[in-house]
Amino acid sequence: MNHSVPDFDVAIIGGGPAGSSMAGYLAKSGLKCVVFEGEMFPREHVGESLVPSSTRILRDLDFLPKMEEGGFPRKYGAAWTAASGHKAYTHSFHHMDFDGLHANSGVDIRFEEREKDTGQKYTWHVDRGKFDLMLLQHANELGAEVYQGVRVSGVDFDADPGFASVKYRIGKKEMSSSCRIAVDASGRNTLIGNQKKWKSQDPMFNQYAIHTWFENYDRTAMAYKEGMNNFIFIHFLPISNTWVWQIPITESVTSVGVVTQKENFVGSKQGREEFFWGSIKTRAEFYEALRKGRQMRPFKHEGDYSYAMKQIADDRLMMIGDAARFVDPIFSTGVSIALTCSQLGHEDILQAFETGNFKRSAFKNYETQLKRGVKNWYNFIRVYYRLNVLFTAFVGDPRYRVDVIKLLQGDVYDEEEPAVLTKMRNIVSAVEKNPNHYWHNLLGNLTAKHFAEVGEAMV
Asked: What is the Cα–Cα distance from 179 to 3, expressed in whole angstroms?
């Protein structure tokens, strides 16, 4: 069939943070857009901590008052802890020109150290069920049509010249809606990536997470300073490439998840509960404190971590959020990348409607900026896993601290490679090449091929 006018200007597949924020931006700008969400909100979802760069997008969407009304715990900073005596934290840092830095079992950052660049000294931890529902409802209030419980089966870009046709089912009836542009925000379901066979698994990261919520866990049990009750904590375990997140959800509820290489879990031949508690037990003080809390939910797992797409845009198509790329979640990047995709991508979409150009070339700015930012995230994570002690040194050194905080706050899209990241990469390279280097025996094996540029062609 051929329509002179499509049903919608833009059809968005998925109502998570990427889809709902994109819908909000476009509806505010006067475009007729629709969101098809396969599930009924609220629904449980992992990825419960924001970074400060998200604040700008939420402000753009006039959503900050609702964040405050929602009562989400404020997140003032982040901390990383290691087991007592862990080799990466027991060395003097007078080598490598880090004079005066004293190693300890933890490092932390506070967002107020860069408050002027983000507008406020805190961001939030969120119950994703509540947060995602609120953001989707907000997009609807701004003018976007929203259909929940409607799962898209595919998009036809060829049958109707000039439009894309979104296919879905309502009850037993097969239906379709036409649009000028389709936006894939389907998350890790990666609808279009699978349809077009663009998806490629990351050859380096193959994470597996087991997580649940606990009530009345004492969050000060692992704090080594005052005022860290509502920080996000990353606790490293003395197990290869394995760590734990600790994220406040409410005043009394905490999300806890063990992240490991999938081969560690499979090789253990244990169930999820057994593996979770066995891993936690390697940090005795954490184990004892967590056992005093009450587990609120069954254990859930997350796999299929870290993948990329061969391309993230095409004629009449833009892919955003996890549908475009997913990287290791150690720096809470998921929601931030999703929201940033909408911030960057909606500008190209508006321009496309102004010019009438809906070819892939119309989305070049979005592709360029997103690839640059995600590549910086990816390189930061790879350097981090290769030499944890270097991250500790840079966070503690006043020459580099603010620049590292800038990375951790999610501001990674403006520069081809931030100078502080280049400095870290150069130091890792020097350590790798010198077997007699003071830090050589601290090198991790997960990203050992970092400088072979594994994944360089990936988004």
From this structure: 10
